[in-house]
Specification:
five-stranded mixed β-barrel, 252 residues, 35% helix, OB fold (Dihydrolipoamide Acetyltransferase, E2P), binds zinc ion, single chain, three-stranded antiparallel β-sheet, elongated, de novo design (two linked rop proteins)
């Protein structure tokens, strides 16, 4: 049975039997992997307490083809993001990052862009001294891009004409549509000029430089509504993300 060594981020951890845990991991070497960590619930176990969501680990597992659940052999902590864990809002956002990745059909092929994005977002959430919400907003746009449903915020996706003022965004087409290119009964969201400008910045500005973006609550709500409907449209199960429900419950 070949052993595989790879870096991973823990997406989900559930108890299994009296003594074990089943983990869903996003790995650098082989995409999403599910492993069973035997004995991980025993007080004295070889994994310590590191098999928790959003932790960044290096693991060794026995990789057998055509088996859904692999056996975890070793795990070492690389980063635990203590700045996130001491802050309720940051914790909820980091969990939302992991939960969202868990819902995506990423397969078992490596996707270095996706791995790097997740790690970078978790680090920035940990390090920021301001609200980490903009980082999560940008993450949702970047992940859409990597997964093949990049939203287009420039010209009309039908005829490429320029658009001004309030505009309509067609969820299925993934972009703005002018009056002539509108499809009857298509799912659309109307965006104000300010919301559109903010979405463009979230897409283009590096996640380390998002502070000060979206200063008003009204604008935040417009952008969050857009992202919610867009992700719901493209990601099955997005509606049920528990961390986002929790985040909404603690937001003022
Ligand atoms: Zn058009």
């Amino acid at each position: 049975m070949p052993q595989q060594k790879t870096e991973v981020i823990v997406l989900r951890s559930v108890n299994y039997s009296e003594t074990s845990k089943i983990l869903t991991l996003y790995s650098r070497a082989c995409g999403k992997v599910s492993v069973i960590a035997k004995g991980a619930r025993n007080i004295k176990n070889r994994f310590g307490g590191i098999l928790e969501p959003a932790n960044y680990l290096e693991i060794v597992f026995y990789a057998r083809e055509n088996r859904e659940l692999q056996f975890l052999n070793q795990a070492e902590l690389i980063e635990s993001f203590p700045g996130t864990k001491s802050n309720l809002e940051k914790t909820a956002l980091a969990m939302a990052v992991c939960e969202l990745l868990d819902r995506l059909e990423t397969g078992q092929e490596p996707n270095p862009l996706l791995f790097r994005l997740q790690l970078s977002v978790l680090r920035h959430i940990n390090d920021t001294e301001e609200s980490a919400h903009n980082i999560f907003r940008a993450f949702q746009i970047h992940i859409s891009d990597i997964m093949g449903f990049r939203p287009h915020f420039d010209n009309c996706v039908g005829c490429r004409c320029s658009l001004f003022g309030k505009v309509d965004f067609d969820l299925a087409a993934g972009g703005l549509v002018c009056a002539a290119c509108k499809v009857p009964d298509a799912a659309e969201i109307r965006l104000s000029n300010d919301a559109l400008e903010s979405l463009r910045k979230l897409q283009r500005v590096h996640i380390s430089k998002l502070s000060g973006l979206l200063p008003s609550k009204t604008l935040q709500r417009q952008v969050d509504d857009f992202l919610k409907y867009y992700l719901r449209y493209h990601v099955e199960g997005f509606r049920e993300l528990k961390s986002l429900q929790f985040l909404a419950s603690i937001s003022p």
